[in-house]
């Protein structure tokens, strides 16, 4: 009884000829690496993160990258995938900056409200004349 689903041939790592999809992916990745490396074949390991990022750019079935599906974020560079350490000194500075900003927010809003009133008055004067 046919279900219409493609049959996968499960194979061991030392028999890659059993699965055509694996062969196509390996061939595609090999070509991609050759294009990125050019004549400097000894530097393939340096461009591997870029190749991985480019290869995983978008999945045809979901229309999203694996990173967007898992993390909800599309990285622009491989460095975007590295978790950054939290430095306590920078965290304290950011917290202090946020507190100062939040204290100044009512003053900003009050001045913005005044400026918006003036702009509205000027617009009314322009329309009337």
Task: Describe the structure in your own words.
With about 130 residues, this protein is mainly alpha-helical. The chain folds into two domains: about 15-80, no CATH class; about 85-129. Helix content is about 60%, strand content about 0%. It contains four helices and no strands. The chain has helices at about 20-35, 45-55, 65-70, 90-129. The radius of gyration is 28 Å and the shape is elongated.
Structure in a nutshell:
This protein has four helices and no strands.
State the assembly state of the protein chains.
Answer: single chain
End-to-end distance: 83 Å
Tell me the structural class.
Answer: mainly alpha
Radius of gyration: 28 Å
Mean of the pLDDT scores?
A: 76
Biggest sheet character: none
Please, how many domains? 2
Q: How many β-strand stretches?
A: 0
Helix/strand order: HHHH
Number of helices: 4
Strand content: under 5%
Shape annotation: elongated
Give the % helix.
Answer: 55-70%
Q: Unreliable stretches, pLDDT < 50, 5 or more residues?
A: none
Topology diagram in text:
Elements: H1 20-37, H2 44-55, H3 66-70, H4 88-128
Helix pairs in contact: 1-2
Please supply descriptive tags for the structure shown above.
single chain, 129 residues, mainly alpha, 2 domains, 4 helices, elongated
């Amino acid at each position: 009884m046919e279900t219409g689903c493609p049959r996968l041939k499960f194979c061991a790592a030392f028999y890659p000829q059993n699965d055509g999809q694996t062969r196509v992916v390996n061939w595609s990745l090999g070509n991609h690496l050759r294009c990125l490396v050019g004549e400097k074949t000894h530097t393939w390991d340096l461009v591997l993160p870029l190749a991985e990022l480019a290869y995983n750019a978008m999945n045809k079935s979901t229309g999203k990258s694996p990173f967007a599906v898992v993390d909800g974020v599309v990285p622009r560079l491989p460095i975007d995938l590295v978790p950054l350490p939290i430095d306590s000194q920078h965290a304290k500075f950011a917290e202090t900056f946020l507190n100062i900003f939040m204290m100044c927010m009512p003053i900003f809003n009050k001045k913005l409200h005044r400026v918006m009133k003036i702009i509205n008055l000027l617009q009314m004067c322009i329309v009337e004349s």
